[in-house]
Amino acid sequence: MRNKVIYINDFHEGCLVLDNPVFRADYPVRLSRQILGATALDTERPYHLESKRIWRSAFSRTNVERKYREIIETSMVEGFRLAEERNDLLLTTSFIPNRILLRLMNLPDTDPLVHHQNIKAIVTYFEDGIHTEASKAAFAYAHDPKFERACDIFRELPSAKDRINELSLLLIGAVETTGIAMKILCGVWHSRHQELERLIADHGMDGAILRILIDDVPLGLATRHCSKDMKLADIEISRGDIVHVDIMKSHRNENARGESSRLTADNHLVWGRGRHRCPGSNLAKAELKLYLEKLMTFVPGDFTMESAEGVQRPVTFRHTTCTSISRCPVHREKISS
To answer: Which residues does UniProt assign to the signal peptide (predicted)?
Structure first.
């Protein structure tokens, strides 16, 4: 019998999937396994706990706030300066997260936009599953040993292959998700500015960002395979079935978090959950906070946001349809000032 593909749209059922070890991440047909190799996302792989420990140590709150703070701040300045030169705020969403990562990897001379262009086709492959010449070239680039040779973060892992796999997760998944979150913040800043101001006033910068991303998640699906026959709520699931947790739809379930103003890691899936929690979330949060602080110094009415018409947002990496955010000619004072 052919295995089923099941979508979970309920928050609590989604949590059950992510919490239950019966639902595994190590199946070979999973695209992220094919693209990235075995990484910290694969909770059943050898060295999983070790790689997760390294991620958490490298991107601990202390390291992010002290060791990486200057890198993040300098990259923000450079990104908004580039936006000024090219009159497009949207460029910051690609430049800044890639600039930060390349500096963390001891590759400060690599152009962030060229680097991002080199891996872009992999994101398309995540969506359509079609391995093109462009995605093959992007795969080869992301697994180039130069990244492993330059970066010290995963030195404790036993082989170069393990280190390259973890770095590919950092290069592709982590940076892309942060860039999408920045695009989402841009959209709210431009089109729902008064609502954003109220959110910040009521919940602070961190709380406002979290609420925005709960309503519009950067990463849309969490996918697992079932390792034995079981029943989840009233759903019969067979061994080998593929189960997609639709994070966006699960957040729309009113019972997931109700109207409570207090949010905890247990009532949203923005950064994953439990064993499947994003190991680099502290870095992403710090980037997004500084990014939104800078955005809030601008007047959205001074800018024009262009979007592609008739384009649906992707399901996995949920890029917005925005194509540019340019300052109106009458308001051309410097973006980076």
So the answer is: none
pLDDT on residue 48: 73
pTM of the model: 0.92
Give the H/E segment covering residue 282. helix 281-295
C-alpha distances (whole Å) from 130 to each of 31, 35, 210 are: 10, 12, 33
- Contact call for residues 58 and 153 (beta carbons, < 8 A): yes
Written as six digits, the tokens of 304 are 């024009």
Distances (CA, A) of 78 to 83, 85, 112, 300: 9, 11, 11, 21
Contact yes or no for 251/11 (Cβ under 8 A)? yes
Closest by alpha carbon to 97, among 166, 177, 175, 183?
175
Domains of the chain: 31-217+252-331 (1.10.630.10)
The label of the residue with tokens 């996995």 reads 316
DSSP per residue, 301-330: GGEEEEE-TT-PPPSSB---SEEEEEE-GG
- DSSP state letters, 115-129: HHHHHHHHHHHHHH-
